[in-house]
Design brief:
The protein is mainly beta. Strands 2, 4, 5, 6, 9, 10 and 11 form a 7-stranded mixed sheet that branches. A hairpin with a 6-residue loop joins strand 4 and strand 5. The protein is globular and about 40 Å long.
Length: about 120
């Protein structure tokens, strides 16, 4: 099992910045990719950004150039730096850890609220 704990959400004005953190613990060796997803009010959960154990990244088109995902392997922590925030970025943000070779290993954090006011 892998446990994920997110932090760093909050309320910010449009144009502002926030940094989310996701600390992983447990059987970290079971996963080879981590990422952030979000669920806006009344909508389905969607991909924000992912990063593999080798450092390869992938971003949703809506956040490219504004968000940066990174990881500190020594701390088993993944970060999401969010700049130039927009009201449409308002959502519950979830951390995910998974094994890209097996759907058996797919873990989620509890979520953290990000609210962007106009």
């Amino acid at each position: 099992q892998v446990q994920l704990v997110e932090s760093g959400g909050g309320l910010v004005q449009a144009g502002g910045s926030l940094r989310l953190s996701c600390a992983a613990s447990g059987s970290i060796f079971m996963v080879n990719a981590m990422g952030w997803y979000r669920q806006p009010p009344g909508k389905q959960r969607e991909l924000v950004a992912t990063i593999t154990s080798r450092g390869s990244t992938n971003y949703a088109d809506s956040v490219k150039g504004r968000f940066t995902i990174s990881r500190d392997n020594a701390k088993n922590t993944v970060y999401l730096q969010m700049n130039s925030l927009k009201p449409e970025d308002t959502a519950v943000y979830y951390c995910n850890a998974r094994n890209t070779y097996s759907t058996r290993y797919d873990y989620w954090g509890q979520g953290t609220q990000v609210s962007v006011s106009s």
